[in-house]
Amino acid sequence: MKTKKIVLGGFLVGLGVLIPMIFHMVNMGGPVFLPMHIPVLLAGFLLGGEYGFLVGLITPIISSIITGMPPMIPVLPIMVVELSLYGLISGILFNRVKLNTLMSLILSMICGRAGGFLTVYIMANALGFKKLNPMIWIKTGLVTGLPGIVIQLIFIPTLLHILSKSLKKDSVYSLK
């Protein structure tokens, strides 16, 4: 099973790099639709918290190196923290704590945003990135990213439900 998880994790990292590229090619902004978030959240649900964390850590770094998106400074560190927490928390809440899909998704999104906020706060106050304002980051992230948040809340539970039925497993999406 470890090999299957590594392969699926690599596939989700690839999607996390490819999907934002497609969005940018057709001028659909990443900050609005949050296309990198979906594969990372799926990794948490399907593979568990550890692999979800790794997919969230690796995806924005590879994307930044290959495409320049997100920009290495200041956005990459923020996204690494945010997405790593998305993958970790969704995997833990769903696979270990056994919360339902929607509650796991909402709580992981809140934790990821909180981690992003804390990263912006540290970068602005301790590291001297004066152009970063944590409160503006939260407001802009929530308002600008609202379409992406809605898409995630609809698409991820729906996809996981379809996968659950197709895998003939009642309520388990993991590959355990």
Automatic annotation (TrEMBL):
The keyword Electron transport does not apply. It comes from the Bacteria. Keywords: Membrane, Transmembrane, Transmembrane helix. The chain crosses the membrane at residues 6-26, 38-66, 72-94, 101-124, 136-160. The keyword Membrane applies. This is ECF transporter S component. The lineage of its organism: Bacteria, Bacillati, Bacillota, Clostridia, Peptostreptococcales.
